[in-house]
Design a protein that fits this description.
The structure holds 2 protein chains of 2 kinds. In chain A, about 35% of the residues lie in helices and about 15% in strands. Chain A contains 8 helices and 7 strands. The two termini of chain A are about 35 Å apart. The termini of chain B are far apart. The chains are: A alpha/beta, B alpha/beta. At the A-B interface, α4, α7 and α8 of A face α2, α3, α5, α10 and α11 of B. Bound molecules: iron/sulfur cluster (SF4). Iron/sulfur cluster binds next to loops of chain B.
Chain lengths: ~200, ~475
């Protein structure tokens, strides 16, 4: 996985609550057996009409936000299914950070596995960033993982919390499976204990 | 004496392989269920890294999400992309030595229905699947939740998952349900009360008399929708109903192993005095048959209610309500029972078990699907279908005007050809009413099987209590 250090880019505002995984990547795009190439279908039903033409007022179709790398969204972002196609599509489009007041658990988890940083902030701070993002192209936001801060172009800075282990993995670009396989002794020892204790499993 | 523990605490403690200083744990996984949509990239990852599946005997694969539900599927799947996904699953299962229930196997069905049916699901286990409705298996007192594809790959390779412990939440439903009120009404009412994010970061234990009085099927319906309330997992403490359900199933323990398992299962319930981080209580006798009016499962009201006005919500939600009413083509003040529907879908891992079909048959007895209404029943598994045929329900329902399909997820997520057209309004026993979930522009009202049957009879959302 690619290392994540800091992102300084355009933030697109999506002031909607409960943006679900069906919106992020509708199911007709889940038939792929690959991870890549989903960016063109990100937010498909909000981004394109029935004829496949762009819907001009959808935020990512507006000239100022076409190259957004950050999304600022309403509460409970990523609710719904466990499909990892949602972070794959975001990442493939170029989104590296999502800011919201809260995230659905599975989506939150899936982000870290794909080099996306979900940033949870209190409501007033998300509102502030939303306002800032709505001002358009000049609204570049900088997200720095090492110092756990989000800053706007006028220098306002908010600090966010992130689990230290996840932070470490993201900063170093570490692969979970490789890390876990190093603990194979503990896994084997567990399996032996479990075999004695609950042989029916 | 050790500290009193919850059911969740006990299962968690028994599965910790390793705990880091910051509380990040490696948790052992007892059962891994795999389906065609969220697994191909995980197997691809294994192959690329030259890894094998650590415990193929604990891994079960079944295609369900995008399989067609028409009888002619025996001749093969017409849609090329779906066919490739199903074939990839079959190849992966064969190459890695995993149990596989193919499309033409009578035991095939929705992954969360066949896990319990085949006895893979048992109390006290940790169960994962690349699907958020894995919470269903919590009805047996198993810790079960959805995972993403990277985690699917992680579990395949290591039989463990990296996790931090969630908080404990207790949802108690006291008293008994009134006539015509079912498990679906309980679970939707809970989401209505807590909101779609009310359970985020928590594992819910459902308890109380109304939960105890539910059958295993009903408990599965309740746990199934834990995720719609934001919780990754929902649990019900195992009891005699649980044990009776598991006993004798293909992959359940037998003989002396059964006795040992049973003795362990009886110790799993939450200890008296154990503390929960969050608690809510609902009165069972106050729960009415409910329907959703919007595009989030929290948008739920008793069928006797009216479509709400966006202004009655706080500022953050008002915009979403406005948008969802436009999408749903509804105006504030309309009586829910006046909303006319086009389609009825009875299916999904929430409500496609035999008891659900019996509920539908009970309401339909002596009645017919209203002319012009498309009504479809998609049993949750080949075995549910076979049982309904044996009980004569299948034939009754077909005579009443329902289509009788083969097992699969079908119109729950509409990845196969079973879809709503734009603007088509559906009374659905599934679990998600998101925009476009059942087909682009399709409008979904979630409700119980009995309520869906009532809607089929009248052609509008209806109070089933007037029909029973
Ligand atoms: S029936 Fe619906 S909710 Fe259940 S597993 Fe299938 S798609 Fe998911």
């Amino acid at each position: 996985m690619e290392r994540f250090e800091r992102v300084s880019g355009i933030a697109a505002p999506m002031p909607l609550v409960n943006i679900d995984t069906d919106m992020i990547i509708p199911k007709q795009f889940l038939k792929t057996i690959k991870r890549s190439g989903l960016g063109v279908n990100l937010f498909d039903e909000m981004r394109f009409d029935e004829n496949g033409d762009e819907i001009p007022d959808f935020v990512l179709n507006r000239p100022a936000y076409r190259n957004a790398e950050i999304l600022v969204a309403g509460d409970n972002f990523g609710c719904g299914s466990s499909r990892e196609h949602a972070p794959w599509a975001l990442r493939d489009f170029g989104i590296k950070v999502v800011v919201s007041t809260s995230f659905a658990d599975i989506f939150y988890n899936n982000c870290f596995k794909n080099g996306i940083l979900p940033v949870a902030l209190p409501k007033d701070q998300v509102d502030f960033l939303m306002d800032d993002a709505e001002k358009g192209e000049n609204a570049r936001i900088t997200v720095d993982l090492e110092s756990q801060t989000v800053s706007t172009s006028d220098g306002t800075t908010f600090r966010f919390e992130v689990d230290p282990f996840r932070k470490h993995c993201l900063l170093e670009g570490l692969d979970d499976i490789g890390l876990t396989l190093k603990k194979m002794d503990a896994i084997e020892a567990y399996e032996q204990r479990a075999q004695l204790r609950s042989p029916w499993i | 004496m050790s500290r009193p523990r919850t059911l969740y605490d006990k299962i968690w403690d028994a599965h910790v392989v390793h705990e880091a200083d910051d509380g990040t744990c490696l948790i052992y996984i007892d059962r891994h269920l795999v389906h065609e949509v969220t697994s191909p990239q995980a197997f691809e990852g294994l192959r690329m890294a030259g890894r094998s599946v650590r415990a193929p005997e604990k891994t079960i694969a079944v295609p369900d999400h995008n399989v067609p539900t028409t009888v002619d599927r025996e001749q093969g799947i017409a849609n090329k992309e779906s066919r490739i996904q199903v074939e990839a699953l079959e190849t992966n299962a064969r190459d890695f030595g995993i149990v596989y229930y193919g499309v033409n196997d009578v035991r095939q069905g929705i992954v969360h229905i066949i896990g319990p049916e085949q006895g893979w699901t048992q109390p006290g286990l940790t169960i994962v699947c690349g699907d958020s409705h894995t919470a269903t298996h919590g009805a047996f007192g198993a810790l079960a939740h959805g995972i993403g594809t990277s985690e699917v790959e992680h579990v395949l390779a290591t039989q463990t998952l990296i996790q931090k412990k969630s908080r404990n939440m207790k949802v108690e439903v006291t008293g008994s349900l009134g006539p015509g009120v079912t498990a679906k009404d309980i679970t939707l009412s809970i989401i209505g009360a807590t909101g779609a994010a009310g359970g985020t970061g928590h594992v819910i234990e459902y308890c109380g008399q109304a939960i105890r009085e539910l059958t295993m099927e009903g408990r599965m319906t309740v746990c199934n929708m834990a995720i719609e309330g934001g919780a990754r997992a929902g649990l019900v403490a195992p009891d005699d109903k649980t044990f009776d359900y598991v006993r004798g199933r293909s992959h359940a323990p037998k003989g002396a192993a059964w006795e040992a398992a049973l003795a362990h299962w009886k110790t799993l319930g939450t200890d008296p005095g154990a503390e929960f981080d969050k608690e809510i209580v609902l009165k069972g006798e106050e729960i009415a048959p409910v329907v959703t009016w919007g595009t989030s499962p929290e948008d739920v009201l008793p069928i006797t209610g009216t479509v709400p006005h966006p202004d009655s919500f706080d500022a953050g939600k008002a915009g979403a309500v406005q948008r969802s009413l436009e999408y749903m083509g509804l105006s504030p003040g309309t009586r829910l029972a006046d909303i006319e529907i086009d389609t009825v879908f009875i299916g999904s891992c929430t409500n496609a078990r035999i008891e659900d079909l019996r509920d539908v048959a009970r309401v339909m007895r002596g009645r017919r699907v209203k002319d012009g209404i498309r009504a479809m029943i998609v049993p949750g598994s080949g075995l549910v279908r076979a049982q309904a045929e044996e009980e004569g329900i299948a034939q009754e329902l077909q005579e009443a005007g329902f289509e009788w399909r083969m097992a699969g997820c079908s119109m729950c997520l509409a990845m196969n050809p079973d879809q709503l057209a734009p603007g088509e309004r559906c009374a659905s026993t599934s679990n998600r009413n998101f925009e476009g979930r059942q087909g682009r522009g399709g409008r979904t009202h979630l409700l119980s099987p009995a309520m869906a049957a009532a809607a089929a009879v009248t052609g509008r959302l209806s109070d089933v209590r007037e029909l029973v």
